[in-house]
User: Fold this.
Amino acid sequence: MDFRSYCDIAYKELSDWRVKLDRVIRQINQLPEKTQEKLGGAIRDLEATIKDIGFSINKLNRECLTDWSESQGAVEDKMSNLRKKMTDLCKKMDGSLIGKDLLSD
Assistant:
C-alpha cells in the first residue's frame, strides 16, 4: 500500500471517530450540568486527540516520503490512543452513555 492509499484509509477512520465523538457530545449535552462538567475534560482531550491525528495525516499526505513507515506508526499509535480514551470515557459513564457500537471499528 502506498502512503496516499494509507492516508485515505486513515482519513476515513478519523472521520468515523469524529462522528462518534459528535454523537457522544450530543448525548452529554442532555445530561445534568454537574455531569457535563465532570466529563468536559475528557471530551476536550478527545477533541484534541482527533485534531492531532488530523494534523499528522495531513502532514503525511503533503510529504512525498520514500520511507513513511515511521509516520504511519505514529498515526496508528494516535488512533490506538483515541480508541483507549473513548473506551475510558465509556467506563467513566458506567457504559450507560456510550453504546458498544460507538467503540466498534
User: Anything to note?
Assistant: The chain has one domain: 3-103. The mean pLDDT is 76. Helices lie at 3-28, 33-62, 69-92, 100-103.
